[in-house]
Structure formats: C-alpha cells, structure tokens
Amino acid sequence: MRVMGVDPGLTRCGISLVDGGLGRSVTALDVDVVRTPPDMPLAQRLLRISDAAEHWMDTHGPDVIAIERVFSQNNVRTAMGTAQAGGVIALAAARRGIEVCFHTPSEVKAAVTGSGSADKAQVTGMITRILGLQQAPKPADAADALALAICHCWRAPMIARMAEAERRAAEQQRQFKARLATARRDGAGRTANSGRKETR
Asked: What does the entry list as the binding residues for Mg(2+) 1 (predicted)?
C-alpha cells in the first residue's frame, strides 16, 4: 500500500510518500515541505499547496492520502489555515478517486511512539528509527508527514475491519427491519381476513 502523508499548513505543508509492506514494514520514498509566504493572498497560497499535492498524486500514484485532522488549537487563525490546506488536498484526491483518511495528532503519536501525548522530538526520533534514516527529517513538518503515512499503514487493517463490521451491522439492521415490516404486513392481513370471516 502506497500512502501519501500530509501535515497540512499554510506556511509549511509537509508531504511524504511511504510504501507499506507485510506486517509493520514501511519504506520512505520521498518527503518534502511546501512553503508559502504569509504576505501572499490566501487563494494563491492554497493554489500553490494544491498544485504541489496534485503533482505528487499524479507522479507517485498513492493508494490513499492520510491527512492530519484538525482537532483543536488555541490559535483559531492557524486552525483555519490548517483546515483549508487539508481541504484543498482532500478535494484534489477526491477528483482523482483516491481514498482520503484523516487521523488526529494523538492517533498518529500513539501509532508511532505508543503514547498519544508524545512530543515532537519523540515522534521525530521514532520516525528516524522506524524508517532507518541516517539523520532525522527536518523540519518538523516533514517528520509529521512521514508519521501520518506510517500511522495509516499500521492502522489501515484495523480501519478496514471496523468498516466491515459497520457494513455488516448496517446490513443486519436492514434485514431485521425488512423482516419486521413483512411480519407487520402479514399480521395486518390476517387480522383483516379474520374480520371479514366474522362479519359473514
């Protein structure tokens, strides 16, 4: 499975590409950070991020895009910029029929380090070890993008099992409702027939 990890942001947007193998085997293929100047108009900043992400999608052909979900941030302006950057990338993926999954920062930290409250240094250190890199990826946005891709590789089987369980539950509920409706119709029919017999 080829996963494109995205750590969205307006000033710096981390993008990575990882191949997931058997078990927990992962191989880093590429990583980069897209930068946009703060004085550039918002629409142009988003366009630059979208163009870069689309180039990665068209060049590398990922099976899925893993994007950090904006969970909560004290700085509302930063949170909005992060959400906007993630949104244009998700849209570009949807246009290409590429699956998009969102992971919260705590999910990524827990998957990579075993602790949902790990700091950036711990995440970067584990990413460097997991991928067997000679030096830690910099800046932090690059490491975060790699962490997102690895997180998805390792969580994908569980996500698939949960989706299948939800699908089966929905199908069972649909079948139950259909049987219930049939039973009600049959019961109403018997009641009506019984009433006609009594009037005779």
From this structure: 7, 141
Binding positions for Mg(2+): 7, 68, 141
Q: d(Cα 63, Cα 125) in Å, to the nearest integer?
A: 27
Active-site hit among 30, 141, 171, 198: 141
Catalytic residue among 7, 32, 63, 119: 7
58 classed as catalytic: no
pTM attached to this predicted model: 0.78
Q: Half-sphere exposure of 200 toward its Cβ, with a 13 Å CA cutoff?
A: 6
| All structural domains of the chain with their residue ranges | 2-159
Residue 68 annotated as catalytic: yes
Task: Could you please state the CATH topology (level 3) that the domain comprising 2-159 is classified under.
Answer: Nucleotidyltransferase; domain 5 (3.30.420)
For residue range 22-66, list pLDDT tens digits in order: 778 899 999 999 999 999 999 999 999 999 999 999 999 999 999
User: Residue 107 catalytic?
Assistant: no
